[in-house]
Give the backbone structure.
Amino acid sequence: MNHFLISIIFAGVAAGSALQACALVSSSSSDAPEVVIEPIQVAKVESPRVPSSMEFAGQKVDLDRIDMYERLDRELTAMTYTHGNTLLQIKRANRWFPVLEPILRKNGVPSDILYLACIESMLNPLAVSPAKAAGMWQFMPETARQYGLQVDSDVDERYNVEKATAAACRYLLNAYKRYGNWETVAASYNGGMAGISRKLEAQMVNSAYDLHLVDETSRYMFRLLAAKLIMENPSDFGFSLSPDQLYQPYDCKEVEVSGSVDDWAVWASRRGITYAQLRMLNPWIRSASLPNKAGKTYKVKIPASPEALSRSHSTHSVYNKNWVNDEN
């Protein structure tokens, strides 16, 4: 038998085996139950609604203009779907808005400027930027000193919420005298008064809404608008909270310190709290001691009672009833 014939025989045997295998598979699969593939269930994603107009700091903002509408839509969409950050901001607002708003009101600053603190720091008193701006209002060291805050290695009042808020008011009112509208004041808070003033003159407009700016500053005013829309009615944007999930204002009393403190940990221990709790309530304390050579008087917060830092003894006060859902 020659090699050609052998090859034909082997090829035929292989083909027959393959046919038998196919028949077995076909017979087996015909008896198997039919596999039904269910469609994948995904959450419904809705685009937040942009109003035709809104009010900010007592001024109507017309959103009919295409660029105005789309700039707000961008920020509203981003904040709506950055769930974790927005939820934290609402929770923190319940603690800090009762502290911030009276200071704004006392200084004649519109309450809508609360949202500037939201944008700057997410209402985190310990926030620090890569550029070393610090505190809830994100002051740079030199600007903070210019507006009356102490900034050194022992005391940094950028982290003192009350004092930093009063300093922010001084800056904002100074800017308002220059510009006469709050959107440009907000732009200057981000981009600096000198830079914004030059651009207003060069581009021959009076409002930051009409300026061509770098992206960060251009977005800034619309982030304020988006924060206001969401935080006035969070449920309209899918956020659901119960009263016990909101962070409560700290229940504190103040102790005046006019001399030096050799060791803050010892000072805290003598008042029944830990050094960590002292620093939490007074983040402006920046070192383990206070030389205080100038004899300045500092107001140091400590818990009003031993139970003051306990959630079980909190009253669950709600600053804005729209922040919680009745179903919760």
Notes: The chain has two domains: 53-242, 252-304. Residues 53-242 form a domain with the Lysozyme fold (CATH 1.10.530.10).
